[in-house]
Amino acid sequence: VDKSSLPLRPPVVTIMGHVDHGKTTLLDTLRSTSVAKGEAGGITQHIGAFSVPVPATSGGDKRSITFLDTPGHAAFSAMRARGASVTDIVVLVVAADDGIMPQTKEVIELVQKEQDKVGLVVAVNKIDKPDVDIDRVEKMLLAANVLLERFGGDVPCVHVSGLNGEGLDQLVETINAVAEMQDVRAEQKDVVQGYVLESKMQKGLGPVATVLLLRGVMKSGIHLICGTTHAKVRSLTSPSGESVKTVLPGSAAVVSGWKELPNAGDEVLSGSETDIKRAIGNRIRKAEIEASMTDMEA
Ligand code: GTP
Ligand code: NA
Ligand code: MG
């Protein structure tokens, strides 16, 4: 298949970093709402998704970027690993007044594991604070094996303030440039493939899942399999809450119609109703066999 004939899709950009280094505030300023203020204790406990339109680059079409917010709290390392594995680009947020902290290091390790697939952009944040030493933070990054452009490496580093918006234009431009080099394309004719970012029971809709779509086109009525549950898609809602008819690769949507609650992190695939029912039967049997073997070992 000639990849260059496929349409470009929005790059998936995951914001990661140590707790309270300002990930949600930064995204919040980007889309100018106030999710950070509404969150209990200001601690992110889920993977949020939203899309922002970005200005066209020279000669390019107008496009958007899908941003995923992740928690920085130590307890959420599984979510961070998931975030790093489904994304095209990681923006590592490092608070200038705090420098490299344990979850900063964790993110660096995750990105290095996925370095063939995942681009890295560093955002040194909170530069509005008095007496911050950006130079010191950049040298800490170098010591942690993040080869910034400034030191002859290939990792771009932008200085920003999520609070007052300084540097955010440049951050978006930098993300755009990295995405353009990655040339992320949408395989729309294929089977639907994506990942569950989060799932919950919702009044009136039953089990719903936020699905990040990477291939194919999601529409209501199609059949999906995820782990040992399945759905005939009943409704699709964009992360900003609008009901949508179709979802294209590189974007996320809340999907209803699930038989049972899917697990966050599980892969979502489409198929015919009969194939899916058969596959689920097989998956359940396999799980039962594995469980009985563990029982025997015990
Ligand atoms: P977790 O999701 O819990 O990991 O935190 P987070 O990284 O999303 O940080 P959050 O956006 O919740 O911000 C933490 C605190 O830092 C809040 O009090 C913000 O107001 C403050 N903050 C965030 N960005 C900036 C900034 O650019 N400058 C200053 N001065 N404060 C900031
Ligand atoms: Na926080
Ligand atoms: Mg947050």
UniProtKB/TrEMBL annotation:
<protein>
    <recommendedName>
        <fullName>Translation initiation factor IF-2, mitochondrial</fullName>
    </recommendedName>
</protein>
<comment type="similarity">
    <text>Belongs to the TRAFAC class translation factor GTPase superfamily. Classic translation factor GTPase family. IF-2 subfamily.</text>
</comment>
<feature type="domain" description="Tr-type G">
    <location>
        <begin position="8"/>
        <end position="184"/>
    </location>
</feature>
